[in-house]
Amino acid sequence: MNVTASKFGRVAVLYGGDSAEREVSLNSGKAIFNALQKNAIDAVLIDAVDDLVEKIKQAKPDRIFIALHGAGGEDGRVQALLEFLNLPFTGSGVQSSALAMDKWFSKQIFTVSGIPTPAYRLLTDETDMSEVVSDLGEALMIKPAHEGSSIGMSKTAKADELIPAYKKAAQYDSCVFAEQVVVGQEFTVAIIDGQALPVIKLETDHLFYDYEAKYISNDTRYICPCGLSVEKEKELQDLAVKTFSALGCEGWGRVDFMCDENFNFYALEVNTVPGMTDHSLVPMAAKQTGMEFDDLVVKILSQTL
Q1: In the chain, which residues have pLDDT < 50?
Q2: pTM (2 decimals)?
């Protein structure tokens, strides 16, 4: 890298925390920490599960690499704390982190920004589920608005599955919504410094790309090159950058899409702190450009200079 390790000073990697994605975050943080050490960067790991302010004060870092996934780390709260402490950090700022973490608000911003997204309806205990089925059909994704890694999500195929799916999601979040299923292919696009990396196609034998398919199963297929034509891949990359920017996101992240049988793309969500594990997609896309994991970590960190 053209930036010497000493310019970074001490780097604290925030990982762990107490969200439902803690285990994934622990793996991401360890991988990032090891990469920093390989690059001779002074790094320290901080588990954000408790006493975070005191831990940061004791570590005396010059900058922060955020490897926290889910609530408390990806939703703007840690970003606000770090801004208050005047510590530069990786990734998006307070407002954009909060917006991206809230799938319900994200989809509304997509709609007003002219970004295609699957049709959706808010669900509450009072919702007439028959009206939801009438509007959106029986094939639905039921999602808690503020969880990542597909935690709490369900896919329904018939009307009588809707209430159990809603109850499952409501265990994780007070805000739950139904999203119309787009039948077709699933793609994801990593973004670094405003540039879209090669598109990855996702295939799984699971009912959908759930937590197990993402982090546990070894039969999930990640296809890159993704199989789209050059023109269609460029269209999707441009849409990913537009989607990322619509929420005001910065630095690095990942945007997930569905593609129907007519090759129309639909934005699902933006991830502002994507996983950095051996199953993760941003390192996979970066590798297609010739960038190894250790260099990717330093490139992301360089955005804090």
Answers
A1: 1-2, 213
A2: 0.89
